[in-house]
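INPUT
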Amino acid sequence: MKQFKGRPIAPGKACAEAVVTHGGFNTLASLQKALQFGDKKATCGDQSNPDLYGKELCGKALCLPQTIGSTTGGMVLYCACSMGRQPACMLFSKPIDSLAAAGAILADVWLDGVSMPVVDSLGDEFLEYIKDGMKISVEADGTVTVED
Amino acid sequence: MKLTEREQAILDGKEGETMAKVMKTLVMYGDAFGAERLVPVTSEYNHLVTSFGLKLIGPVYELMNKLIEAGALSTQKFSVDPRPVDPKVPANFLQKLIFNKFMYTKQDFYEGQLTTLGLKDKDAFTCACYLNEVGNTPKRGDILSWAESSAVVYANSVLGARCNRNSGIIDIMGSVAGVVPEFGLLTDEGRRASFVIEIKTEKKPEAQLLGSAIGMKVMEAVPYIKGLDKWLGTELDEATCTYLKDFGAATASNGAVGLYHIENLTPEAKDLGDSLILDGAEVYVIDDAELERVKASYPVIWKKPDARPKLCFMGCPHMTLEQLKSWTEKLEAALAESGNAKVTIPTVFTSAPAVLRAFEETEYAKRLEKIGVITSYICPLMYMNNPLCAKMPVITSSNKLRTYTTAKYMTDDEILKTITTK
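OUTPUT
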């Protein structure tokens, strides 16, 4: 078991299995097909992301450095949250980027009853340590516990 | 964050629950990036990224309805990204059925919402809103609340305006409140470069390939590019601005670049030079071999990688008037050489409605039509985003379109050869 401490952007508790990308998470490329065509598992459709392509994202602890790509990114994330297809939590090794922050904040302010805790600044070591399938729990203060 | 009396009153609900949520969104957004205050939006117009009436983004329309019902409208008129469909663009029966009956069934409804919220005019649908013909061109130093990655990077880098890489929805929040949080690319410090890019190519680099290489390397950092003025010159003339439009779009979509500086060319680099470079900036050298390496790294995700293309899209971001004219000339010359009268693959050039109107007034329009090229105002990305179109072998010189769809990237020369020969 190992603990990491980050900064809560959208505070909350979550417990889920990790999916990990070491490259930037392209929100539009990853989620657009899943949202458009009713894929409840939110399978990643970004063919440029070998870490995540074809993997289920809904309900997982998405571990990433940051998000990249289209400025629809925050809107796409907001829609995923509204439709209940969001990751259980998003855990950033780096300080959060403006698009991901927008998605998390829009969901927090404008949607009732939606929970997607977001923690950033967990450090490069977090992303080096974490592997797909590891069990992760997140606390509201930004503490992330990884079970081997 | 320190708020003014008015901002605090709005946050406290003095202008209603919806305006309080708008202000809360902006305050939380600023807090996430250490902003100390909100600053007024000073551009004449805003630009929004969400242009498509896609049935499945219902949550966006619900949010827009909340704004409209509360009278929380945009304080600025705005342009918006391109429309998603155009009957002029080739589509088979099934594709038309999917576009009109399943995907974009909310288009009219959403355009009605946009009109109520503050749409500039019925033709203000383009990703290249800053082109002269469109008329949403911010001044240097203007504070913007824009979204659309290619427009934001152009406004920051080429025009010297100040805008963060805002997301869709956040864009209109700033315009409704009339303020945006001051952080990142709105600050002098946030506009300094943590990467130095040294261009050492033997020929003028392809704009979309160079932008891709830089975007994938620096991600969201600000790059300071040296050696590109050798190929582009030191003046922001029409041809150079066109190059930078395509270059910037690739940096923003293949990475997350919101601002770049080009030595001796872009406004802040001309004024401030090397003082824009942060201590300890990382150096990335780009030569012809590196560009070849990057191009070879793109996955070709067609079912049959060597399939004959069925469609060619040019204009992501939307083409300039100069591009429409120069491509007409290039195609005529290439067709004369190959002995074909028309393009050999269905080809669509996309541009802003206002640019297309200006093009129609030139003698080039008939010439382009004669050689079989279709012009359209659509967003190729929106066209491609369905399973039927995704299975089509489509080629493009847009690295943005390649990133988000199954389209295959080709250089301008490769496109020219492919669509003029059999």
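end of record. The interface with chain B takes residues 9, 24, 26, 28-29, 32-33, 35-38, 47-48, 66-76, 78-79, 82-83, 96-99, 101-103, 105-106, 108-111 of chain A (CB under 8 Å).
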